[in-house]
Write a structure and sequence with these properties.
- This protein has helices at 17-30, 43-49, 115-125, 148-157, and strands at residues 4-8, 35-37, 53-60, 75-84, 87-94, 105-111, 126-133, 139-145, 161-168.
- The protein has four helices and nine strands.
- The chain folds into two domains: 4-94, Periplasmic binding protein-like II (D-Maltodextrin-Binding Protein, domain 2, 3-Layer(aba) Sandwich); 105-168, Alpha-Beta Plaits, CATH 3.30.70.
- It is an alpha+beta fold and 169 residues long.
- Helix 1 links the parallel strand 1 and strand 2 (35-37).
- The strands form two sheets. Strands 2-1-3-5-4 form a five-stranded mixed β-sheet. A four-stranded antiparallel β-sheet has the order 7-8-6-9.
Length: 169
């Protein structure tokens, strides 16, 4: 089943070469020009109005914590498309429609920073992909890995909290 493409673009589109490139890449991949979504991202609303949608979410090189908007939602990252050195598109689908293309998953966790934890995680269980510090002293971290069970075991053995898997690709 083909997914209806929606391009979320939070920046001004006028004169934005990455915007034009993103539209071209999506159109080439899907055969359909994506619908632009420029207002606040509400994935629940998007998926209720367009159940077969695939939202293309741009992550710019200066972005941090982009995945926080997905936590607790009925959405998973199912693919990523690199359009330039400064921007990649994360393909987001409703969790009940998403199909995994491979074994790598994006795993989110709330942790207290500890060097031993990061050494363990980067040793093959999962790799740190993005982090965002909170005002309570914890870090919301995004990891990529193949086994959510191994990831959760390591988290729990170090006394950290697991927030949930937000994607796979």
């Amino acid at each position: 089943m083909k997914k209806f493409p929606i391009l979320y673009w939070p920046r001004n589109t006028k004169g934005d070469e990455e915007y034009r490139l993103a539209r071209k890449v999506i159109s080439n991949a899907t055969g359909v020009m994506p619908r632009l979504w420029a207002e606040d991202l509400d994935l629940g609303r998007i998926f209720s109005e367009n159940p077969d949608a695939a939202v293309y979410y741009p992550v710019f090189c200066e972005s941090t914590g982009w995945w926080g908007e997905l936590l607790g939602g009925d959405a998973v990252v199912t693919d990523k498309v690199i359009i330039s050195p400064e921007c990649q598109l994360m393909v987001i689908e409703a969790a009940h429609h998403a199909r995994s293309r491979g074994g790598t998953q994006l795993l989110a966790a709330e942790i207290y920073p500890a060097s031993g934890f990061f050494k363990k995680m980067n040793s093959g269980i999962a790799t740190v992909a993005d982090m965002l510090a909170t005002d309570t002293g914890t870090i919301l971290a995004l990891f990529s890995g193949k086994s959510s069970a191994s990831f959760i075991n390591v988290l729990e053995s170090t006394g950290n909290s697991y927030l949930g898997c937000i994607g796979r690709y």
